[in-house]
Amino acid sequence: MKAASAVRPWPPDDRLLHVDVEAGALRDAHVRDLPSLLAPGDVLIVNDAATLPASLHTSDGAIELRLLEPPSADGEQAVRGLLFGAGDFRTPTELRAAPPVVRVGEELTFGGEGGFETRPYEEGEREDRDALHARVVAVEPDAPRMVSVRFDRTGAALYQALYRHGRPVQYAYLPEPIALAAQQSRFAARPWAVEMPSAGRPLTYGLLRALRERGVELHALTHAAGLSSTGSDALDARLPLPERYELPESTVAAIARARASGQRVVAVGTTVVRALEASAAEHGEPRAGAGEAKLVLGPGFVPRVVTGLFTGMHPEGTSHFALMTAFAPRELLERAMQHAEREGYLEHELGDSCLVLPKIGGR
Amino acid sequence: MELKNSAILLTGASQGLGAALAERLGDQGARVVLVARESADLRATALRLRARGVEAHALAADVGSADAAGPLAASAAALVGPLDVVIHNASTLGPTPLRDLLDTTPEDFERVLQVNLLGPFRLSRALAGSMALRKRGAIVHVSSDASVAAYPGWGAYSVSKAALDHLARLWAVELAAHGVRAFSVDPGEMDTRMHRAALPDADPATLVDPAQVAQRVVEMLRQVERIAPGARLSAAEWSAVP
């Protein structure tokens, strides 16, 4: 399947492949048709994590640090990250040069004079314009590219520096970098995602309004979506790492109501599946509050909470395709992806969407 | 709206009404993110609040800059969680002494619109989707009597505030069904640096203390459910509904 090669003009009018699980049927539609595909009482849950500019290049250009997780709110905890050698996103991660060996106690310096394009804080005090420093406080013994760092500032000063010196993680299949603003959903709040939770990207506010007018319940959770690729098979095998999430009371209550009445719980994106299923796996039911998702949704995974999935196009052989088989027969999904290929649907983060929907009261 | 523990983003927070609002909101137990261009004054305000046990953060930014809204909204949410309230208090008069429209350059006019109108639009746009999704939020626009009266010399500022009032009405009609309130408030003529820049000869005895206005705005927020969506309220005429 071809990938979308650029951000489409806003508002997007992305295509949607509706996989009707009950009928075993495929229907070509658009994302704007969602209100007619869902039913009153269905609960649609989005990940409201904003995307952090999680890629930091050292001033000498020798190292790129990609954060694997967002800093804590106060910025006082060490943050895990992955090191890459010189270069940028135009080189696929698996072809990137290895970074120099980094030891505990060493300091990485980002930005400073002659650094990156000016971010919004032109009027800040001198220390805000200064380089950002991160001290390496841990190196994974069997994976020296995986480190923990402690930044030289906390709180608001840390976030100002990250937004000044950081860039969003990019995708090698795109000819041009995607601006940070173009990576945010219309409902983004806390910048917890180090790569964009892309399923929610095509949902316009007008569409969200139309869904509510239809009687679809819209709710949020926040899930710290991590990196999708590390550039090494050994490290990729460790993905996804445990990811922080938070479920609001109102979301948990809506899920409980939907389950009691046999309504569908539709996740917007695989990160929403991971957060909800991790909470259910740990507590028996999704529980309001913060948690860390350790659950890996591999082949054979049986969801307890989520019944439908709104996601991107994921061809056979990808880990996301394997996850989709938890919501529809494999044969139907294979047919769906062949249909999508033939009909020119686009895959990857900026591509088209797919709705895998069971019948109400089904499963 | 319960302000205790609520997450509030306040622009123009380093002086005048903004600094007074920061203190009053802090007194209510709100967690505040303060924004202003002038970093030193801003930090002083944040430190003063923290000394009183208030959770206050300072982000130095120019709301008139096209790239400021996204990082501001996200940084604020990172610090205090999804935002419940944004107060658009930052504004500029444009060049002072005030001058006739015929003597106002289009560039100066545009800069006033950037700070007073587009800045608030961009920031609300970055925040209101999350508020609507969570069905909780308030957007407060600090207006001026110049938004309704045509005073000679107040051209760009006056036009920007008239448009800001209307922006409040439009947010209100689009968001009210989703639990997000928007309104504007005319603070009246206050004894502030901004007022001195506009009207240096005004008698301070005729001007209102910004702390008094700030208290009224806090009361409005506490009773925001009773405010008609998009209303233009006068701080001087506001009296708390029992």
* CATH fourth-tier homologous superfamily of chain B: NAD(P)-binding Rossmann-like Domain
Kindly provide the name of the CATH class of the largest domain in chain A.
Answer: Alpha Beta
Number of E strands of chain A = 17
As for the CATH topology of chain B, it is: Rossmann fold
The percent range for helix content of chain A is 10-25%
Element pattern of chain B in H and E: EHEHEHEHEHEHHE
How do the strands of the widest beta sheet of chain B line up side by side?
3-2-1-4-5-6-7
Q: What would you call the structural class of chain B? A: alpha/beta
Protein model, in words:
- Chain A is of the alpha/beta class.
- Chain A is built from nine helices and 17 strands.
- Chain A has helices spanning 34-37, 126-129, 155-165, 205-214, 233-236, 249-260, 270-283, 319-324, 330-342, and strands spanning 2-3, 15-20, 25-30, 43-47, 55-57, 64-67, 79-84, 107-110, 132-140, 143-151, 217-223, 243-247, 265-268, 289-293, 308-312, 346-347, 353-357.
- In chain A, a hairpin with a 4-residue loop joins strand 2 (15-20) and strand 3 (25-30).
- The radius of gyration of chain A is 21 Å and the shape is globular.
- Chain B is α/β, with parallel strands linked by helices and 242 residues long.
- Helix content of chain B is 44%, strand content 15%.
- Chain B is built from seven helices and seven strands, in the order E-H-E-H-E-H-E-H-E-H-E-H-H-E.
- Chain B has helices spanning 16-27, 39-51, 69-80, 106-134, 155-175, 193-198, 210-222; strands at 7-11, 31-36, 56-60, 85-88, 137-142, 180-186, 232-234.
- In chain B, strand 4 (85-88), helix 4 (106-134) and strand 5 form a beta-alpha-beta unit.
- The longest helix of chain B has 29 residues, at 106-134.
- Chain B is globular and about 45 Å long.
- In chain B, 56% of the residues are buried.
- The model of chain B has no long low-confidence stretch (mean pLDDT 96).
